[in-house]
């Protein structure tokens, strides 16, 4: 069943983990700090949103953690490891990390090396793969949000699916009944339709 999916970008995960030098992200008019990220995560979890940790986010965030010069990077590494473990074990609200495995197949990697160079001036290869993760979940009919402080990446957020209103069965039967009555009157004969 389609649902809302939140693709977590490196900038947001670094803010959430309070990685030194990465405690805010985004432009001045759309700035993300820990309190805002924590509230967003809490609200989305309460709404039943599925959180997705792309491989690029994991690697890039790990690189930022390894570059921590102030304090102990071990604590930040453990915090990141906890998030990764939740994704690997599909602990709610995190999607199973293996859901993305098809994006790393030989065919998909060859598609990446073919497609990415045309976008290299606007998207890093990591952001390009995050865009691919978002597109992957969108093709399943999900409403996908790229949670990022990077406006360039945000521009690649998939369009929201158009929801078609479902008709109640009683409305459909009423309409069918109205149509059959008109048909009977036009035909001049009484008929019963089942």
Describe what this molecule looks like in 3D.
The protein has 194 residues and is mainly α. 49% of the residues lie in helices and 7% in strands. The chain contains eight helices and three strands; from the N terminus they run βααβααααβαα. It has a three-stranded parallel sheet with strand order 2-1-3. α1 packs across α2, α1 crosses α3 and α3 packs antiparallel against α4. The radius of gyration is 24 Å and the shape is globular.
Give the structural class.
mainly alpha
Helix content: 40-55%
DSSP strand (E) fraction?
Answer: 5-15%
User: N-to-C terminal Cα separation, in Å?
Assistant: 32 Å
Q: Work out the helix count.
A: 8
Alpha carbon gyration radius? 24 Å
| Tally of separate domains | 2
Total strands: the figure is 3
Mean pLDDT comes to 87
What is the CATH C-level name of the largest domain?
Answer: Alpha Beta
Question: Per the principal axes of the C-alpha atoms, what is the gross shape?
Answer: globular
Spans where pLDDT lies below 50 across 5 or more residues: 179-187
* Secondary-structure element string: EHHEHHHHEHH
The CATH level-2 architecture of the largest domain is identified as 3-Layer(aba) Sandwich
CATH topology of the largest domain: Rossmann fold
Sheet having the most strands: 3 strands, parallel
Sheet with most strands: strand arrangement: 2-1-3
């Amino acid at each position: 069943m389609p649902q809302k999916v939140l693709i977590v970008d490196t900038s947001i995960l670094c803010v959430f983990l309070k990685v030194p030098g990465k405690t805010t992200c985004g432009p001045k008019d759309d700035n993300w700090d820990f309190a805002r990220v924590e509230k967003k995560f809490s609200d989305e979890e309460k709404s039943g949103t599925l959180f997705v940790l792309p491989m690029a986010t994991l690697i890039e965030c790990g690189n930022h953690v390894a570059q921590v010069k102030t304090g102990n990077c071990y604590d930040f590494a453990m915090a990141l490891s906890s998030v990764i473990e939740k994704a690997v074990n599909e602990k709610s609200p995190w999607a199973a990390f293996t859901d993305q495995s098809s994006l790393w197949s030989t065919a998909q990697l060859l598609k990446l090396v073919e497609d990415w160079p045309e976008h290299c001036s606007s998207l890093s290869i990591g952001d390009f793969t995050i865009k691919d993760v978002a597109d992957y979940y969108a093709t399943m009919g999900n409403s996908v949000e790229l949670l990022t402080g990077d406006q360039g990446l945000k521009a690649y957020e998939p369009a929201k699916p158009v929801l078609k209103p479902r008709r109640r069965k009683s409305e459909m039967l009423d309409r069918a009944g109205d149509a059959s009555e008109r048909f009977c009157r036009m035909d001049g004969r009484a008929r019963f339709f089942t």
